[in-house]
Design brief:
The chain is about 0% helix and about 55% strand. By secondary structure, it is mainly beta. It is globular. The model has no long low-confidence stretch (mean pLDDT about 95).
């Protein structure tokens, strides 16, 4: 049974899950459904992802990200090492995965109806392998 994050009130986004700093190292999101979140602002920092990881090491596996609102990204990472595998990004407001100065692995994921970039990898160096991006009736795959 997946762990599900949904809005308390319909169409009212729930904000963000933020993992930041050394204490977040080793975090794992597995078998989660993240639906209807946004981003948040805390202590003069703007977290642009429904899930945001900054200065941490983490794993995302077998998760579904969908219907994010307002903020730019379903997942955003800065200065982070992340492994994102076997996950789905569906009906995404802007970018699905946005990595800034980060590294890791992005493998075996599916991207469906992403309004922005499926992968925004500014100055990042992840291994990207065997992902599927559905674009208006066609499929683009990474090898």
């Amino acid at each position: 049974m997946p762990i599900t994050f949904i809005p308390l009130i319909n169409n009212n986004p729930w904000g963000a899950i933020v993992l930041q700093g050394e204490g977040a190292d080793g975090s794992i999101l597995r078998h989660c459904i993240l639906d209807g979140g946004s981003g948040t602002r805390y202590d003069l920092v703007t977290y642009t992802g429904m899930v945001s990881a900054y200065n941490a090491e983490m794993i995302i596996d077998w998760c579904i990200f969908r219907n994010n609102k307002i903020a730019d990204d379903a997942f955003n990472a800065k200065y982070t090492r992340v492994e994102i595998t076997n996950s789905e990004f569906n009906t995404i407001f802007s970018d699905a995965i946005d990595l800034d100065i980060s590294e890791g692995i992005i493998q075996e994921n599916m991207f469906i109806d992403v309004k922005g970039d499926a992968l925004d990898l500014m100055t990042s160096t992840p291994l990207v392998k065997n992902n599927y991006i559905l674009v208006k009736g066609s499929v683009a795959g990474s090898q």
